[in-house]
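**Archive record**
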Amino acid sequence: MQRHLISAADLTRDDAVLILDTAEEMARVADRPIKKLPTLRGRTIVNLFFEDSTRTRISFEAAEKRLSADVINFSAKGSSVSKASP
């Protein structure tokens, strides 16, 4: 599967089937009492946002935590990253 997905037209049939199979498996996990998977256990994910996007931040963080990752959210706004250079 390609690293970046821009359009569904870019998918091969095998890629599309893999995505649908994975979605079906995740739907079954959502029905379990414990909804976490150990896929990213022991990994730290850092989300860097250059623009505010609450919905995107929350959906990314929820997915990462469901996969058992440790999550750090970093906003460029208000940090030294956003300071203009002289």
